[in-house]
Amino acid sequence: VPEPGEKQIRVRVTHCGICRTDLHIAEGDIPLSKRPVIPGHEIAGFVDALGSGARRFKIGDRVGVSWLNYACGKCKYCMRGEENYCPHIKRTGYDVDGGFAEYVLVHEDYAFDLRETSLPSEELAPMMCPGITGHYAFRISEIQEGERLGMLGFGPTAYYILRVAKSMDIEAYISTRSEEHKKIAKEYGADWVGNLAHESFPKKVDAFIFFPTAGKLVERALENTLPAATLVLGAVTMTPITIENYTQNLWGRKIKTIYQVRRDYGREFLEIANRLKIGIEKEIVRFDEVPEAMVRLKKGEIKGMVQVIEFDAP
Fold this sequence. Notes:
The protein is of the alpha/beta class. The chain has helices at residues 20-27, 76-79, 121-140, 156-167, 179-187, 218-223, 246-250, 263-276, 290-299; strands spanning 8-18, 43-50, 62-65, 68-70, 90-91, 103-107, 112-113, 148-152, 171-175, 192-194, 205-210, 225-233, 254-257, 282-286, 306-310.
């Protein structure tokens, strides 16, 4: 059981989502920052202990923990609100032990306050990664109410984006190969669902959020955007990107990438999710089932859109 340091809180984990990044860390696809490391960065739980100087929460308060475990607050990036670029960043389940355990430590300022949230913890846990990461992509896409948004790939991150987009009267065009995901996208209000490999959007879009790692598809996405559109790349890694027709497909557009996560976008998303009562189809996993569950995640055989570990009550 870890002991909290200065300004840290110890969180008794009740739920932790399983992210594909956890799979990459476990299988060695991503070089380890800490060895050994406990994965898990989609955490919901309750404050169990307070380190010296920690006063933001009380014992028993419900909190969430995301990928961002700590930033220095003093560097040029932190000072201008871009803590995700902090060179001293600590990431949950990568630089510090994460939520595939009964307890996790986090600096009190980097825990999300869930005291006023009515959503159950099994819904809040996956929001700590695909939810707040998706909202980050959504916000930097600069999409406005009443405009058209395109997305390539429809996993949990895109699902959360779709729910927020439809609440803002944004037309949403979804490209996915999965027949199951096509049904889910239609169920939650997508205005068009298809496969960009074989067909184009009915209209060009004002913003595009792109999730695959296939760089060869980036120009295909750009072909379906309007001039002045923003393309957000949501993958952590990407195969080579080639733009053959610069004038037609890239000129006038902006390309941005997601880098880590930020608390401001996270707080904003959680407020929206609570107001809209957003839930997601999920598979609840017992702690002793985690290895087998991660194998099914790798094979694409999970039941629902996300997996959430549920710990026994303390």
